[in-house]
Amino acid sequence: KREHMNNFFSVLLTTLKNSIISVWTKVRYWLTPSFWQSKVLTGLRNFLQKLFDVKPHDKNDYFTVRNWMISRRLGFAVVIVVGLISLYFLITVAGSLGLGKAASDGVRVYRYTSIPLRFAEGNVKIKARSGYIAYEGNVKDGYAEGYGNLYSKDSNLIYSGEFGHGRYNGTGTLFYADGQTQYEGEFADNCFQGTGILYRLNGSKEYEGDFLNGCKEGQGSLFDSGDNIIFTGAFHCDGLVYSQFLAKKTSEIGNIYTGSSRIYSNDADTLVYMEDIQAMYRIDQMQTSVEDEPVISQVYVLNSELIYGQTVISSLDDLTKVMGEPEFQGNTYITLPEAVAVELINQKGNSLNIDTQLETEAVYDEVQTVESYRTMSEIYLYVYQTDDLIYTFFCEDRNAPFFMYMIEQV
């Protein structure tokens, strides 16, 4: 009886072993490349051959679009091919461009050419072409939008603040290459616009006030290198509006200009040189306000450029184009203001060929009494008149560039 049981189990084990070996053999065969080539790939090839057999057999095999008949199988084939190409692109090409892999801090990282970036929203990091993180902040529809930081390839901040459609829009801070603040305030389309503060490279304030299209425009204050205010008033196209001094009482000038000054005077004239803004005004002792206080009658700008409207003028041809023909031009003998101005310009390193022979005596460090000057020295003038102002441009000779100009009211 025991012998019969042993035979039974032996037969059972042999049967199970043969069954398992048979199943395992089939599984191994299914996993071999030959099976896939003979079965799956052959079936796929037959399917594709059938799919791409675009030769229609009857009218039901066509799509009709107006006067055109398009094979249905051809249309399906094109859709599948386009889909496969798109899938391949997303897996291989787009992957290499950055599909938004998460950094160690959990923020998604994209290359700036990445297609998925066009659909990203929220806080991300964006790599530049060379691979460094160029931007970290909020994006929308592929553009920097909201608050963010823009970096150089040396990982230095270029800009920190608000963005709109990929540009500086809103409030932010722009930096010099060494990390020093260049400007902080309002921006519009990458330009200083609104109110803000402009800094020099050494960190001192240069200007605080209104900006338009990247230029000083409106009301603002200039500062010296020690952050002391030297001028408060109107600006236009990045320059001072010098005509704002005209007709001001002498007591009012202190509210506009607070920089270094030097006074030149003789029996007939009093001149005040505003060194920090390179201008000089003449006090007309004969013209007074209702309180019998002298007022400013003329302003001399010791500069070879004039901002007129939206144009920077630096030549006589430009003057004629903008202002028309001069009201007067010709040689004349220099007066005291012109003699003083020539000497001041020469002290700045210029070499004007005008012999003034100016002799002064210092009463105080900031006060000079003019003893004499060469009244027979000649200078060439071009005089233009606008609606309410007269501009006089001073040249060494006829057709020579102007080296300064004077403004007075009509």
What does this 3D model show about the protein?
With 410 residues, the protein is an alpha+beta fold. 24% of the residues lie in helices and 42% in strands. It has helices spanning 2-30, 33-51, 72-96, 250-253, 316-323, 336-347; strands at residues 62-65, 68-71, 101-102, 108-111, 121-127, 133-140, 143-151, 157-164, 167-175, 181-188, 191-199, 205-212, 215-223, 229-236, 239-240, 261-265, 270-274, 279-288, 294-301, 306-308, 311-313, 328-333, 359-364, 367-372, 378-385, 389-395, 402-409. A 13-stranded mixed β-sheet has the order 3-4-5-6-7-8-9-10-11-12-13-14-15, with no helix packed on it. A ten-stranded mixed β-sheet has the order 22-25-26-27-19-18-17-16-24-23, with helices on one face. Strand 3 (101-102) and strand 4 (108-111) form a beta hairpin.
Give the key terms.
ten-stranded mixed beta sheet; elongated; 410 residues; 6 helices; 13-stranded mixed beta sheet
- Classification by helices and strands: alpha+beta
Treating each run of at least 4 consecutive H or I residues as one helix, how many helices? 6
Described by strand count, sense and barrel closure, the largest sheet is: 13 strands, mixed
Distance between the termini: 141 Å
Shape: elongated
> Averaged pLDDT, please?
85
- Poorly predicted runs: 91-99
Total beta strand runs: 27
Helix content: 10-25%
Strand content: 35-45%
Question: Numbering strands along the chain, what is their spatial order in the largest sheet?
Answer: 3-4-5-6-7-8-9-10-11-12-13-14-15
Please state the CA-atom Rg, rounded to the nearest Å: 42 Å
